[in-house]
Amino acid sequence: MPETRHGLLIEDVAAYDHDGDTDRPATADILILGNRIAAVEPGLARQARADETHPWRAAVLAAERIDGSRRLALPGFLNAHYHSHDTLLKGAFEALPLELWGLYALPPSYPRRSRAELVARTLIGAVECLLSGITTVQDMDRIHPYDEGDMAAVLEAYDQVGIRCIFAPHFTERSLLDATPFWQEVIPPDQQWRITGPAGPLFPPGEDIVARLVAAIAPHRGRHPRITFGLGPSAPERLERGTLERLGQASRDHALPVYIHVNESRAMAVHGLQHLAAHGGSQVRYLEACGLLGPRTSLAHSVWLTDAEIALIAETGTSVALNPVGNLKTRSGIARFRALLESGVNIGLGCDNCSCSDAQNMFQAMKMFCSLSGIEDPMPGRPLAVDALRAACTGAARPAGLEAELGHLRPGMLADLLLIDLDDPSFLPLNSAARQVVFTESGRGVRDVIVDGRVVVRHGLPTTLDMAALARNVHELAKDLRRDAAVVAARLDPIRDNLLEAVRRSWAVPMPIDRFLGHPATQLRSRLPDA
């Protein structure tokens, strides 16, 4: 006999099934007990009320009822690549090449942030995710300089807001002057100080970063009901080989997934050509040699990949987290969506930083994922809308070891889901649930969101915190951040043209592939200011 507990009953809802009718999903009742889906059955509630011997009768009668008629239930979206550290800088920048944007926007350029700001930026980012149906975030959060107390405060904020989080502290080791092509050459020695921010190094020189992070994570594992953990090395070129090898060993020893940026921009791919000749100039092959490819690893962006690199990623069971919106704004190029899918690579979709994609909105990411392949191949084919939904709902679960827990509306799965209003203009008339979610919906239709069996968004409003108080707090904290951003800009603006010259030089390096329409290398000099 099923256990009788107070739960939730979503009645008469169109329940999306990745393997079922994705145009007109079947109507069913979804019974949630505790933090898991107990049953998904047509007419379950009606039958249980009518039959005193029905095995779910007591649970149905005790459950809080949610009217699912004229609603579409989707598995919650998993934001496969996200950084909470710049949520207060949304809208702060026009489009910039990746390497420039990072200097103007990211924590190493700024003074150490207050703990109040760390908490506020975590909460506002999480709320934005929840309001657009994202129930899990993979957060590569940069706390600079690193501090265990600051990390604990961020984790408590995630507990408060109620979203599920795969938390991976983000870290670098090498100077950007050494890790970015041509910066040493184009930035005069007496101006290179401008690259370094006022907060100092992330970790004390010589410290074993991997050991410290593993030790910091250990007491939190199992303590937070919706938080799991990983390791967030920034990129291969920003870490020493020994550190990468220790990361691979730590991942195996402690069952920790690894999240790392790979070949996001042309400059990152050029760095591989310049420094990894022993590995064919390939960051992907280099990571394999370091023991970092495999089912627990997710490669963020992966824009500049060759056929051979895609084949190796597929062969090793490594995942890729695609971020099409952020890649456009940072002028990084368009990943090979179709080639990745057709090679069998597990794909997750991410919304990336709030200052480079500027929106934690999976609907934008899904639409771009499906649409941008048309620039490369005009013929019909993948990615299809169903591919986008599967990637958004399931892709990030695999490297985190949550594939059996998240991504489907099935009995036994964790109860993370969203309800979309089918009376919204986006769905009138309903021709295809999958295609209208991906191509028509903007997030406006999200009405209710459930995480871990708890309603965290009801009628479009968060239930776990005082939104007005959070808004007041964010407005106040943003004053200091804007002042600091102005200081950062004043420090960097004198070398801005030098940085743009480094971009030009990266584009002049011959590459085996091109991830832009046409070949901008021959036109770039006329489009960017003279150095």
TL;DR of this structure?
The chain is about 35% helix and about 15% strand. It is an alpha/beta fold and about 525 residues long.
Characterization of the model:
By secondary structure, this protein is of the alpha/beta class. Helices cover 36% and strands 17% of the residues. The chain has 20 helices and 19 strands. The strands form four sheets. Strands 1, 2, 3, 4, 5, 16, 17, 18 and 19 form a nine-stranded mixed sheet that branches. The protein has a four-stranded parallel sheet with strand order 6-7-8-10. A four-stranded parallel sheet has the order 12-13-14-15. Strand 17 and strand 18 (454-458) form a beta hairpin. Helix 4 runs parallel beside helix 5 (148-161). Mean pLDDT is 95; it is low at 1-5 and 522-531.
Topology:
Elements: E1 7-15, E2 27-33, E3 36-41, H1 44-50, H2 57-62, E4 64-67, E5 71-75, E6 77-82, H3 98-105, H4 115-131, E7 134-139, H5 148-161, E8 164-167, E9 170-171, H6 176-179, H7 183-186, H8 209-217, E10 227-229, E11 232-233, H9 241-254, E12 258-262, H10 266-275, H11 283-289, E13 297-301, H12 307-316, E14 319-322, H13 324-329, H14 337-342, E15 346-349, H15 362-371, H16 385-394, E16 417-421, H17 433-439, E17 446-451, E18 454-458, E19 461-462, H18 467-492, H19 496-508, H20 524-527
Parallel strand pairs: 1-4, 1-5, 6-7, 7-8, 8-10, 9-11, 12-13, 13-14, 14-15
Antiparallel strand pairs: 1-2, 2-3, 5-16, 16-17, 17-18, 18-19
Helix pairs in contact: 4-5, 4-18, 8-9, 15-16, 16-17
